[in-house]
């Protein structure tokens, strides 16, 4: 048993942890330097087509840097009656792609790819990109037709100068990276070691007889872990890939299925409380439920396309 644990720890130290640490540190430092915010000009034509006001546009683009700040900004404009409830809902969903871009740099690239490997990681990111683009496209089209007659307010968008020195930004980035790593690394080691031991002692053999919608039995373990913690599900899928128990397509399919199955848990545990906190009970409930429905719908489409095309 000891040799299995040592072998898995050596594998992690050599192939996964160095890439994970470097990627997370770089991502957080770049975020502190405002690199993500500086690419916002690319999306202005999209926002104009959606007929969003300058206020909503400012909030949507802010999702590139911070989802919490963007929601607070959007909620503030709604409270001031600067934007309508309809525009608030549409802006919240137009932001789906912008939120994806943020997560791409702070989570998908530095966390998902090191855990799943390049092939499975890129496959999963492509699927999530598809989902976010579909949600945003739906909202943009809705805004184009539903917001065309609304009065546009004006806002003086001035970016406050960031007076921090480069050294302070680097320190802040390193601090954020440490906060992320101290949560991920212990779970990563535990999940990889336990998976290796369970696989060595034949624990997953009975699962091969259980098939969820035609997926390999091992997918049920990923779904079960995903109900408790998303990152642990990625770690388990990556471990199974490393053990040769799943193909990249099977692993990504299982993770997409996990996101569908766990959507109700995510809704109750995270989305609903968060949206209600920012937008109030009525509007917050509407945004959270519609978001869950859209994400589940397009994730099902992404999963179906993945299985059909491969």
TrEMBL record:
Residue ranges constituting the Nucleoside transporter/FeoB GTPase Gate domain according to the UniProt record: 13-117
Bilayer-crossing regions: 12-36, 56-77, 89-113, 125-147, 184-204, 219-237, 249-267, 287-309
Keywords assigned: Membrane, Transmembrane, Transmembrane helix
One Pfam family, short name: Gate
InterPro entries in alphabetical order: Gate_dom, MJ0871-like
PANTHER family: GATE DOMAIN-CONTAINING PROTEIN, NUCLEOSIDE TRANSPORTER_FEOB GTPASE GATE DOMAIN-CONTAINING PROTEIN
Name of the protein in its database record: Nucleoside recognition domain protein
């Amino acid at each position: 048993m000891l040799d299995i644990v040592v072998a898995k720890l050596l594998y992690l130290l050599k192939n996964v942890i160095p890439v994970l640490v470097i990627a997370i540190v770089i991502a957080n430092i770049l975020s502190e330097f405002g690199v993500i915010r500086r690419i916002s000009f690319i999306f202005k034509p999209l926002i104009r087509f959606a007929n969003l006001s300058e206020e909503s546009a400012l909030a949507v683009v802010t999702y590139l840097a911070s989802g919490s700040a963007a929601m607070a900004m959007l909620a503030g404009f709604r409270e001031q009656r600067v934007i309508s409830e309809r525009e608030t809902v549409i802006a919240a969903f137009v932001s789906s792609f912008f939120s994806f871009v943020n997560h791409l740099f702070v989570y998908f690239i530095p966390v998902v790819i090191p855990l799943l490997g390049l092939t499975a990681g890129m496959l999963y990111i492509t699927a999530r990109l598809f989902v976010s683009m579909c949600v945003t496209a739906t909202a943009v089209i809705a805004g184009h037709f539903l917001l065309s007659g609304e009065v546009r307010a004006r806002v003086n968008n001035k970016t406050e100068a960031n007076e921090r020195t480069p050294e302070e930004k680097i320190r802040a980035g390193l601090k954020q990276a440490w906060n992320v790593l101290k949560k991920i690394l212990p779970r990563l080691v535990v999940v990889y070691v336990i998976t290796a031991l369970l696989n060595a002692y034949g624990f997953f053999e009975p699962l091969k007889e259980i098939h969820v919608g035609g997926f390999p039995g091992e997918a049920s373990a990923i779904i079960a872990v995903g109900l408790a913690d998303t990152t642990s599900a990625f770690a388990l899928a990556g471990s199974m890939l490393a053990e040769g128990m799943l193909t990249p397509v099977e692993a990504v399919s299982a993770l997409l299925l996990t996101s569908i199955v766990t959507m109700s848990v995510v809704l109750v545990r995270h989305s609903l409380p968060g949206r209600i906190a920012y937008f109030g009970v009525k509007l917050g409930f509407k945004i959270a439920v519609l978001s869950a429905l859209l994400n589940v719908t397009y994730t099902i489409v992404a999963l179906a396309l993945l299985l059909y095309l491969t």
